[in-house]
TrEMBL record:
Ranges in coiled-coil conformation: none
Protein family per UniProt: Belongs to the TatA/E family.
Pfam families: TatA_B_E
Native organism: Chryseobacterium soldanellicola
One annotated GO molecular function: protein transmembrane transporter activity
Gene3D superfamilies membership: 1.20.5.3310
Name of the protein in question: Sec-independent protein translocase protein TatA
Renumbered residue ranges of the record's region Disordered: 78-111
Compartments, record wording: Cell membrane
Role description: Part of the twin-arginine translocation (Tat) system that transports large folded proteins containing a characteristic twin-arginine motif in their signal peptide across membranes. TatA could form the protein-conducting channel of the Tat system.
Swiss-Prot/TrEMBL keywords: Cell membrane, Membrane, Protein transport, Translocation, Transmembrane, Transmembrane helix, Transport
Entry membrane topology: Single-pass membrane protein
Gene responsible for this protein: tatA
Main location: membrane
Keyword Hydrolase: no
Amino acid sequence: MELSIGEMALIAVAIVVLFGPDKLPQIARDLGAGVRKMRGAVEDIKTEIMKETDNPVSEIKREIEKVKDAAKDFNPLNDIQKDALTEPTSSNELPVVKPSEDETYEGPVSR
């Protein structure tokens, strides 16, 4: 909304006629205070919006940090070592699976 100089002059004359020249400074102060309050309200709204939009991002960042910390402490060899300690084996060799017990064994293949 753009006002030309003529339109602004017409508005100024109308204000002077309606309220008188002695109340003009008070009206200007009141308008200035209203504009400052509106700007403050807009800034408060912007701040609240930024907090609300930033909040999920910071929660996601915290969750990522938790996962990173858990990954630092995770060592799958610890579980294997615990299993090895709880189940004593007679030797370090792998158990031999008989072909009759192995479901994936196909037997000799002839061509």
